[in-house]
Write a structure and sequence with these properties.
mainly alpha, single chain, 434 Repressor (Amino-terminal Domain)
Length: about 100
């Protein structure tokens, strides 16, 4: 079974990667999201779970696809779980 911490760490890494690609500081992203820089730091360190609504907000302000801040794959069963989650997210997005 995939561990929550593994997903949190990978989501954190991807958020940080996209933020840096956009030449933004944590404080810039925080201002754009209406949260504190400490919250962004905690998201990027994997210390906080990033709820799906917050991932949508992050993707929107970073002008990227939500899939850019979700893990693309894990091996074995982990990969199957991630791919299922991504399919469900795509179907939710199309329903909205």
């Amino acid at each position: 079974m995939i561990e929550k911490e593994e997903i949190n760490q990978e989501v954190a890494r991807l958020i940080r990667k996209v933020r840096i690609e956009r030449n933004l500081r944590q404080s810039d992203l925080a201002l754009m999201l209406g949260i504190t820089p400490t919250q962004v730091k905690n998201y990027e360190s994997g210390d906080y779970n990033v709820y799906i609504y917050r991932l949508y907000q992050i993707a929107r302000v970073l002008e990227c696809n939500i899939m850019d801040v979700l893990p693309l794959s894990f091996s074995g069963d982990k990969g199957k779980i991630i791919e299922k989650m991504k399919r469900e997210l795509v179907s939710v997005k199309t329903e909205i």
